[in-house]
Amino acid sequence: MIQHAELASRLQAVLASGPLTRLERLSSGASRETWRLECDGRQLILQRLRRGAVTRLDLEVRVLAVAAVAGVPTPRVVLDGSRSDALERPFVIVEAIAGESIARKILRDDAFSVARRQLPRQIAQAAARTHAAPITELAALSDADQVESLRSLLDGLGDPHPVFEIALRWLELHRPAPRPNVLVHGDLRLGNLLVTPSGLSGVLDWELSHLGSPAEDLAWMCVRAWRFGSGLPAAGLATREQMLAHYAAEGGAVISLAELRWWEVLGTLKWGLICIMQSQTHLRGLVQSHELAILGRRVCENEWDILQLLSPVPA
Amino acid sequence: MLEIVQAVQQWWSHAATQPASSRRTFDIQVAVNALDIVQRELLDFARQRSAHRSRLAGLGHADDRSLANAIRSGAHDDNLEELAAVLRESIRDKVAVANPRWLQSDPIPADQSASHNVPAPQRAAAPHNAAAPPTE
Lengths: 315, 136
Hints:
heterodimer, A: alpha+beta, Phosphorylase Kinase, domain 1, 2 domains, 5-stranded antiparallel sheet, globular, B: mainly alpha
């Protein structure tokens, strides 16, 4: 394994730069590690796959380029190492974008009060531009049916979950009319957006991007977990109606509340299944954490939200 | 329940040897919350289990597995909404144990952002849950 100093000198070599003046590990997601670095006065971000990660980083680099051309604020790629072994594992280096990503700060701090007024339109615009991007070069992205994918995910989890079965069945019986596939970000929500006091500065984390319905991105940000305690459903910033109206005004498709609701049921189901998977990581002894252990208890929050969404009476 | 108690116990026996830190303080809060969950569950477990069993029986099922399989097979396609209404009571019990605050609606923040700059025609705000089902 490369040590810190070794990584710094290898980075200097691949960047053909002066010595690094900063190299700091930021976080480690499930599939990759993120580093902040500084050299020759430039602020950069390194993302490197973890050992055994199966993500197609080369595809993600292509998605970033396509989204940038479409006018989505994305980090500019400085070095595409998705096929390189210079840092042992595939990597990509992008320019750092200034901005805050912590949702609760964006939703609550006074510093972001102007941004909060701009964000619904800006997020809708980023979504509309993403969905208008040409996908001819992105044919390698998955276009799997989301209901089918979630059904196999649920089957892999073992225990019976009647409410999730109701959701799957309901989704099957009420499918909206199909739309032509577009580029879907796949995780569009606060936490994956960079925000400055004046508004949206970057759309990050494209690793779940795929081909599908534009309504999926708009509904995902409405899943209750992504409201971060706010009473406003769309990303904690706007009503569903407002977000849909902004989206249409920015050139996106006209999406009805009913279609949005279908995708919100699907998104809530997806998040519930992810919670189960994360808590099982603890139960199998992979990660010892009581925080993860109680995450399993909170799966019922998603079941509750699904039943609220399916309720014929306003709850 | 057992898995939570074990997780807290394991963490505590490790944390007891560690110096104080903000991370440890945060973890202690998480552990306290976890024990709150266990406490609520112990207090209401017997009632919740028997109430859930009678709901299942009312739907013609002996356990969750049987109900889940029947839903999957399409046997309940005609009464999915009724099923949802019955299960909602069991899920309400579970949430009341895991995170009672989730049952209340979230507070609306003072800053009602996004009320400006909205294109006028589609501004009407019908309650989301009252929306008609999507076309099939």
